[in-house]
Amino acid sequence: MADYYSTFKTSQVVLPVIHVENRKQALLNAETAKRAGADGVFLISMRGMVSEDLLEIHGDVKKEFSTWWIGGGYAFRLILEAFAIIVEASYRSMLRT
Predict the structure, then answer these.
(1) pLDDT single digits (tens) 44-68
(2) Domain ranges of the chain
(3) Disulfide engineering: 38 pairs with which of 33, 62, 93, 94, CB 3.0-4.6 Å?
């Protein structure tokens, strides 16, 4: 995993938080943040979105902005649950390739 300075190359960054409702809205908000000069975005689920859906939308945003930093978070999940979801999705992704 890259460290902070090799990722951002500066001491201060702007990472807007996008409260994801659907794929189209997440992509539109990410594009707006990019045009405004943000260094990346955090995608979070605040309304109980299915975890797999948020992870899929994260992949779509990352695909569209492949050189940009995209983070994600599950606001109503325990940290261990969130990691389990990410690990399982990563494993499934490896099996598809």
Answers:
(1) 987 767 777 888 898 999 999 999 9
(2) 14-96
(3) 33
The pair of structure tokens assigned to 82 is 């969130």
Q: Give the Cα separation of 9 and 88 in Å (integer).
A: 31
Q: Are 56 and 22 in contact (CB under 8 A)?
A: no
DSSP E strands in 1-97: the ranges are 17-19, 40-45, 69-74
Average pLDDT over residues 29-38: 97
Distance of CA 73 to the CA centre of its chain: 7
Per-residue burial over 32-49, b if 16 or more Cβ lie within 10 Å, else e, is ebbeeebbbbbbbbeeeb
Q: Is 74 exposed, middle or buried (0-12, 13-18, 19+ CB in 10 A)?
A: buried
